[in-house]
Amino acid sequence: MPDAATVPRTRSLTRLRAAAEHCQACDLYRDATQTVFGAGPRDAPLMLVGETPGDVEDREGRPFAGPAGRLLDRALADAGLDRDRAYVSNAVKHFRFHREGKRRIHEKPDAGQIAACRPWLRAELAAVRPRVLVVLGATAAATVLGRSFRVTEQHGQPLEWADHAAGSPLAEPGGGPPLGDTMVVATVHPSAVLRSRDRDAAYAGFVADLRAVAPLL
After folding, report:
1. pLDDT tens digit string along 80-128?
2. Does the residue 10 lie in any domain?
3. Domain total in the chain
4. Residue 171 falls within a domain, yes or no?
5. Taking the model in full, what pTM does it have?
């Protein structure tokens, strides 16, 4: 797991991003093209966290650059949120996949890989200190709010970070990021919308969850 020498004690996203390029805290770096760190302004009032980079993100080095990212951009606009004022990242910064012929198929990161990458997410949260944090999907929700949290039961509900900080894996060890009165909203990952049999209904629900964010900013 990255130690204090690997994850700089800084609020500079530039320094954090440069350090993360050399992270070998888990095995994912061996096959991934590159580290895909978060992107957006450091003073962003809104931060969104997903699961892991996909094939496009791995190749381009930018989070949410593929089909799920394009859907997220459209949903944010439909929810009245300014995409340019958001910081986006993932719980895990390297692409996990298996091959089917020439195709690289996404795989969910395991608990060890999520834990290894947790110090980077903690550092990003401490640097950005968003007013609202949106967790996209079950992996991001478990990383931020704990494994007992269920997106299906509490999606779209504004939650106070302070009420969940004690049970958050981000608080291990040595305390979590100084998020103060940050609000947290959980929703599905945009890739789940793309996979849905009723994509229109899934998209409408996704946008409805995101609309809960605007009054909090």
Report:
1. 999 999 999 999 999 999 999 989 999 999 999 999 999 999 999 999 9
2. no
3. 1
4. yes
5. 0.94
